[in-house]
Amino acid sequence: MNLILTSSLENRNTGHVPAQEAYRVLENVYRKVSAKYGDKVTLLSDLNKGAEDPVITCRIVGDFYEYFTQEPDKAAAAEALRMILSQ
Asked: Got the DSSP string for 41-79?
C-alpha cells in the first residue's frame, strides 16, 4: 500500500496500465459497493454525512478496499487506487 501511495503522490502510472482498465476496476468496485449499501455509498463523498453514521461508513470503506484486492487485474486495481488517492 505504501508503494501505491508514493506513486500516487508522484502522479505516475508505474504499471503502464491504460486509464480505461483502471476505470473498469473503479466501475466494478463501485457496482459492488452500491449493490451492498445502496444510497449509503454517498457517505463516502461527504465527510459530515460520514461522521453521522461512522459504523456504516467504516464498513463501506473496508469493503471498498477489500473489493480492490479481489480484482483479478492487480496492476489495474493498483492504478485505480493511485487515481483515487491522487485526487
From this structure: GGGGT-HHHHHHSHHHHHHHHHHHHHHHHH-S-HHHHHH
Q: How far apart are CA 21 and CA 2, in angstroms?
A: 22
Min mean pLDDT across 6-15, 39-48, 65-74 is at 6-15
SS3 at position 71: coil
Instruction: Tell me the pLDDT tens digit for each residue of 2-27.
Output: 554 444 445 554 558 999 999 999 99
Q: What's the mean pLDDT in 47-60?
A: 93
Q: What is the C-alpha to C-alpha distance for residues 60 and 57, in angstroms, rounded to an integer?
A: 5
Residue whose C-alpha cell is 467504516: 58
Helix axes 74-85, 19-37, angle to 10 degrees: 80
Nine-digit cell string for 54: 461512522
